[in-house]
Write a structure and sequence with these properties.
By secondary structure, this protein is of the alpha+beta class. It is built from seven helices and seven strands. It comes from Aerococcus sanguinicola.
């Protein structure tokens, strides 16, 4: 990430909106914003699949669900944040599971990039399915988008829900309903 270019762009933005980037309150703003973007978009430096490398044996495990995982990302259309919770379920195949925190780490790594909520949902599901032998994966994300709540239609509190179902979850609506019921419990 080129922080110098980000700082210059923010300085130009301040001038473009009619501000004086040299006034006391704004002198360090370009540097602060560059540092913030480096933090909020750190996902470009991460490899989510690495969290799937260490696997454990768990015989007869039927379903794994980690729910209410907080996440945040940046909308690629408006460069505004969106945030919410994710729910990740999978049915292990070959009696192998990963540490529960690894599911949250995958969501975090993928969400720290400019993108759409739909992309995060699909990418999380495929990262798990591609790197762990599973019968199925089901990912549900719920988020509030600042591009809807503080601009445009100004609908604060509106929630967007996306899902990705692979394998047995795509084929079995009863299994999806069971997981959705567990999420709401």
């Amino acid at each position: 990430m080129d922080k110098v270019k980000i700082e210059q762009a923010i300085r130009d933005l301040l001038i473009g909106i009619g501000e004086d980037p040299d006034r006391e309150g704004l002198q360090e703003t370009p540097k602060r914003v560059a540092k913030m973007y480096a933090e909020l978009l750190d996902g470009y430096q991460r490899t989510p699949a690495q969290h799937m490398e260490k696997q454990f044996t768990a015989e007869d495990s039927e379903l794994v669900l980690v729910k209410d995982i907080p996440f945040h990302s940046m909308c690629e259309h408006h460069l505004l944040p969106f945030y919410g919770v994710g729910h990740i379920a999978y049915v292990p195949g070959a009696d192998k599971v990963v540490g529960l925190s690894k599911l949250a780490r995958i969501l975090e790594d993928i969400s720290l990039r400019l993108q759409l909520q739909e992309q995060i949902t699909t990418e999380v599901a495929h990262t798990i399915a591609d790197n762990l032998e599973v019968e199925g994966v089901f990912v549900v994300l719920e988020a509030e988008h600042m591009c809807m709540s503080i601009r445009g239609v100004h609908k604060e509190g509106a929630s967007t829900v996306t899902k990705s179902a692979l394998g047995c979850f795509k084929e079995n609506s009863e299994l999806r309903k069971e997981v959705l019921s567990m999420i709401r419990a």
